[in-house]
Design brief:
Bound molecules: inosinic acid, magnesium ion
Order of helices and strands: EHEEEEHEHHHEHEHEEHEHEHHEE
Strand order of the largest sheet: 7-6-5-2-8-1-9-12-13-14
Radius of gyration: 19 Å
Helix content: 25-40%
Largest sheet: 10 strands, mixed
Strand content: 15-25%
Number of strands: 14
Structural class: alpha/beta
Distance between the termini: 5 Å
Length: 337
Amino acid sequence: MPCVLVCGGQWGDEGKGKIVAYLSLKYRPHLVARAGVGPNAGHTVHFGGRKFGLRQVPCGFVYEGARLLIGPGVLVNPDVLLREVEETGTGGRLGVDERCALIEPHHVERDRGSEHLSRRIGTTGSGCGPANEDRVRRVARLAREEERLRPFLTDVPLELHEALERGRKVLIEGSQGFGLSLVHGTYPYVTSKDTCAGTMLADVGVGPTRVSEVLLVFKAYATRVGEGPFPTEMPQEEAERLGIVEYGTVTGRRRRVGYFDFEMARRAAIINGATQLAITCLDRLFRGCAGARRWEELTEEARSFVRRVEEATGVPVTLLSTGEGIEDVIDLSRGRL
Ligand code: IMP
Ligand code: MG
């Protein structure tokens, strides 16, 4: 590895959870640190016959040897976190940075009760926007002030630094995606923070010179939940005809579906400084690719799509996901992950 950052190239829900789970099982990182906004993200992992929709605990939990960290830039809702810790049985290896700002019940109420946020923007109602407002106003409470988080408190940047100094592998799990960035996305229909590589690193406290690879994840088609522009959106009937019907992990809302946006992908690759790309859900768009584990097993149509993505972005595609299972992956990274 030694230090790989995974981030999203579309509007979230690219399948980062699955990719992080695969990398964790295959490459066995010492630490997996979660970055991004907070529990507005839901990362899905199918593991051990169960489906997990994780909003706080890193998806790297599937590799039992990994210590799991939540970086200081990530918002923490203690109720959501503690529920997931129990569900995943990860209490013994989880570290929450003492500087994480807290989401409290009034933040959730403010998010859901605001006409502007809940209706016009179509937020997830998880309280992230109002909690980040309070953080900027410097009135938010931090994890170190929350009794229930005491057993998990740690210094995440220091743990990451020490691991990297010892030459150990570190995986940074970003959340959301390029189009949702407060800075680079489709403002005002965005989340409450930048969602690109630079900010993901700041979220966990790793300097930009320490990263070896930025793996940018795309889905073979695009989806979006909530309001906002979607230039390649297709009519719902067309999505149904293609058999693509998705619901949000956090909110249960039906996702809008569109064609792959090559122009947006190029911009996402530039701004994230992507060194490798992953493409997920190839099997959903291209029949006959389900469960493929070798490049040669893909249909010609799927292969030419992958080549077009590489041409548009100038970045090699090194991981392809061909099914829900963690092992349904074509890995072309040749030791670079
Ligand atoms: P908020 O982040 O809850 O404030 O929501 C702002 C916008 O970002 C809405 O359109 C949400 O649907 C979207 N959003 C935030 N996080 C995610 C995510 O992880 N996946 C998909 N959409 C997200
Ligand atoms: Mg999601």
